[in-house]
Amino acid sequence: MLLRILLRIGDFVFVTRPLIIIPAWSFYFLGSRAASRTTAVEDGTFGLASMTAVLMAAYLINLIYDQETDRRNNKGHYLTRGIFRVRTVILMAFVYFAVASVAFQLSVAGQRPWILATLVLALVYSLPPLRLCARPLLDLAANAFFYGGIAFLLGFAGRPVSAAEGLASTIPYVLLVGANFLHTTILDVDGDRATDKRTTSVAVGVRVSAGMAVALAAAALVAAIEGFSRRGDLFTLVIVALSFPAFVVGASKLRGADETVRSKVSSNVVQYVTAVVAVAACVFKPMFAAVIVPLVVVSRLYYRARFGLNYPGPAQGDAGGTD
User: What domains are there in the chain, each with its CATH number?
Assistant: First the structure.
């Protein structure tokens, strides 16, 4: 009985996909770090809360529109396995949008344009007619510019610093996120192709996507070196330098790989780069570790008990329920 209650609570927590929000939080704190090098700290907590609530609402909307693709890719279990009804997911999305609106009103003024940009991009990413998640290259651009750009600038704008400096600091991160995102599309390429969802990897193929990822990561490294020479930003250079080899190794292992090996290789790349960025954010904001470490541990326990998943990994079992 207790397990059923805990799993039901977990359903409402993990349906918003909090692990996918970790990169957004990480880049937020990296942006805050970049701004704090020369200025006093301002309280950007409500801006962070507003961004988080917008993303949770957006992921719920995406869950509705990606049901067929998620079923093929063994993802999005909450609707495909009947744990929640669509109407419940819609209601939760509205609740999170309401929370985002309240937090927006309390946020630092400089953060508000970036919160609005988060909202607009989140909606056009999932909703027709634009639905950027199913448009080659636009899916890449949207992810790169949000995580590496908007989330970073939201953290940067929590402090009274020139926006121009913030924009210059985002370039390595935008390129790095773009490289990492390509491996997420490689992960789902077969299911996306089967359901006519035209991501970048569906359009150009796995080998080209992996090559593009290496090129973007190399460009990120060049931009980070330039940032170090101009602004003394060693922090960003270390992050990109540690991430770059993963893309090279990933591209080499993907040559001629079957679907199972391909998924494992790209999953390892995504997880490694995400971990590098998250650890870097924790160096600046140690309390961040107190949030993400328990979140990762609990998520592994929840996914194993609820879905038979060694998260992240292939399904081992089945589970279901209703709301």
Answer: 2-307 (1.10.600)
